[in-house]
Design a protein that fits this description.
The structure holds 2 protein chains of 2 kinds. In chain A, about 50% of the residues lie in helices and about 10% in strands. Chain A is an alpha+beta fold. Chain A folds into 2 domains: about 90 residues, Alpha-Beta Plaits (2-Layer Sandwich), CATH 3.30.70; about 60 residues, no CATH class. By secondary structure, chain B is mainly alpha-helical. Chain B has one domain: Up-down Bundle (Formate dehydrogenase/DMSO reductase fold). The chains are: A alpha+beta, B mainly alpha. Chains A and B meet through helix 1, strand 2, helix 2, helix 3 and helix 4 of A and helix 1, helix 5, helix 7 and helix 15 of B.
């Protein structure tokens, strides 16, 4: 199925938000919004219809794996070679909490980064067709993927919302 | 073209890109002169270390009872320096302190490089550093595992976790900025930055996971940074040595770490602001905020000093009292009183409003604080080991040529990393500075928040 990509370049936050709202109201849901920095107003508008990012699930699983690994490693290794130090029992929990804590943070942090990469589809080897270098400078972009026959309608919406440039 | 002079206009978003990018393409003779100087000092340090590996640790004056001496002093000092960076990048991020945005990148770089410097010292100190991997838990034929009840093993875990998480947090923060640099550069430079930016485009689907993940990393780094210097303090507090065996040590070390770290941030940021002409980004407000934090941590530290001597005094413990007395009035009395002067008295000038925004005063205070905090680590370790329970085992340590050279070279190693960093990577966060600048809006009533 052939699709068209229409890109509107915006100079302002409020016009970008208007465009997103307008497009959604007209039934165009396949949007990509480019911003030089995360802007709360735009973020709220974009995220309104989406479930929360799943990154936290990765963090939780990674963290719990770390805790389990820390306790397992310390307890198991003290049991197979019962080294009595300071008259304490081979399995003494208080010092093992430190190892478990550090591994919780370590694996939790690493799996969070993994989540950013996997869920955000990074590294992205080929640039998107609608990307423009100005989107890391001071311009916002709203790209719409739609059937070719609707491209003109999308262009009109973008322009009326205040896009300084519309291209296909 | 240069940044607007101080106090004239607020920079626009495009100004931010321009002002950061120009730091990557111009390097004057001053920069290369500094690079050559620190490289020479570093070379001297490498030579001294090689010599010590060849001839033995006696060259560093390490013998009973002074088995820790300067190397562990440097280790604790440098780990502490790193703490302010994580405080600014993670804790102040969670508190949404807007002033952090223009200093956090350099502070975070400082953290990574300070931990890299600190990590060298246990290796230098163990002598046969090619056996250092024995500290790591790895499967082996004889089922020998590290003693997880030893504070030194906790240290290995705490420091390597801290290094890993700091590096990861630092790199994640850099990605959108490297993409901005990529889009400004040309030729080979563009190719290199394109690879490093991982194809970042700033699309909504990238930002939503990135923002979540970044917040979670900050939330993980916060308890981590508080735990790291606590664990380092356990190296001392878990021992029975008088003057070390104290439940006060964890918060005492963490506060001192943040205090010294802020001093180092100022030492790095003030020249950067001057040379890069970043007066529009690092304003008097930023200096004032950093100075206030330095002052607060100094006052807390003074409180801990009072507690420390008070505890010794009222403990009724002859060894505690003798150890405190020895530190204040015996062989190391000068370093002891100089430490109090640098850490408790000098920062008091920051109560004066003008001092908090004067770069010269701030710089001088920071240097005093760095000296004072280095001496604090020295005064815990050396006199602590030198005057313990039994006068027969007492011993004086004096720095030798080898360990002094390596100590000075550790600063060179830190600065060479930092200087290299500010030439190749954006040392001001392009994205986060844009977040706090006024956003471009067309109709003022609707857009801003």
């Amino acid at each position: 199925m052939a699709t068209a990509n229409v890109l509107g370049v915006f100079a302002h936050v409020d016009t970008t938000v208007d465009a997103i709202r307008e497009l959604r109201a007209k039934g165009f849901a396949d949007l990509t919004v480019y911003t030089p920095a995360p802007i709360e107003d735009i973020e709220q508008e974009v995220e309104r219809v989406r479930p929360l990012s799943k990154v936290r699930l990765f963090t939780l699983i990674g963290g719990l794996t770390g805790t389990a690994t820390g306790f397992f490693l310390t307890i198991w290794s003290s049991l197979i070679w019962s080294l009595l130090t300071g008259g304490k029992a081979p399995v003494s929990f208080p010092p093992f909490i430190i190892i478990a804590f550090e591994l919780t943070i370590l694996l939790g942090g690493l799996s969070t980064v993994l989540a950013i990469l996997i869920l955000g589809r990074l590294p992205k080897l080929t640039p998107s067709v609608t990307y423009d270098p100005r989107f890391t400078l001071d311009r916002f972009g709203v790209a719409v993927t739609c059937p070719p026959e609707k491209a003109d309608a999308v262009g009109t919406v973008l322009r009326s919302a205040g896009a300084e440039e519309v291209r296909r | 073209m240069s940044a607007p002079e101080r106090g004239t206009t607020t920079p626009t978003w495009a100004d931010v890109n321009r002002d950061v990018y120009r730091t990557l393409i111009t390097a004057g003779n001053t920069y290369f002169a500094w690079m050559v100087l620190v490289a020479l000092i570093l070379a001297a340090g490498v030579f001294a270390w090689g010599n010590q590996i060849w001839l033995g640790l006696g060259l560093a004056g390490i013998r009973t009872p002074q088995m820790w001496a300067l190397y562990i002093t440097n280790f604790v000092f440098w780990i502490g320096i790193g703490h302010a960076g994580t405080l600014i990048s993670a804790i102040l991020y969670l508190f949404r302190a807007k002033w952090r945005t223009s200093i956090y990148r350099a502070a975070e770089a400082m953290t990574v490089f300070a931990v890299l410097t600190a990590g060298l010292f246990p290796l230098i100190h163990v002598g046969r550093m090619w056996f250092a991997y024995w500290l790591l838990p790895y499967p082996n034929q004889r089922f020998l595992w590290p003693n997880f009840k030893s504070p030194l093993i906790w240290d290995v875990f705490a420091i390597s976790t801290y290094l890993t998480i700091s590096v990861v947090f630092f790199i994640v923060g850099l990605i959108p900025d490297v993409a901005a640099v990529r889009d400004q550069s040309t030729g080979l430079r563009k190719k290199i930055y394109s690879v490093l930016a991982l194809g970042w485009e700033g699309s909504d689907s990238q930002w939503r996971h990135y923002r979540r993940g970044y917040g979670l990393l900050a939330a993980l780094a916060t308890p981590l940074v508080l735990s790291v210097h606590s664990v380092v303090s356990f190296d001392f507090a878990m021992a029975l040595v008088p003057g070390w065996h104290s439940s006060l040590f964890a918060p005492f070390f963490v506060d001192g770490a943040i205090f010294s770290g802020f001093a180092m941030v100022l030492v790095l940021m003030l020249p950067m602001r001057y040379y890069f002409n970043w007066y529009a980004y690092i304003t008097d407000k930023h200096l004032d905020a950093m100075a206030k934090l330095t002052l607060v941590t100094s006052l807390v530290l003074t409180y801990f000093y009072l507690c420390e001597s008070g505890t010794a005094w009222y403990s009724g413990e002859v060894y505690e009292r003798a150890s405190m007395f020895a530190r204040a009035f015996k062989a190391y009395k000068y370093t002891f009183w100089l430490q109090y002067f640098c850490n408790s008295l000098v920062p008091l000038i920051l109560f004066w409003k003008k001092a908090r925004t004067s770069p010269v005063i701030l710089y001088v205070v920071s240097i005093f604080v760095l000296i004072g905090m280095w001496l604090e680590r020295f005064n815990i370790i050396v006199p602590g080991l030198g005057y313990d329970f039994y006068p027969y085992t007492w011993g004086i340590f004096l720095p030798r040529f080898t360990d002094t050279t390596i100590t000075i070279a550790s600063f060179a190693w830190f600065f060479i990393l930092f200087l290299a960093f500010i030439r190749v990577m954006p040392s001001l966060s392009i994205v986060e500075v844009k977040e706090v600048l006024p956003h471009p809006v067309k109709h003022a009533h609707g857009g801003s928040h």
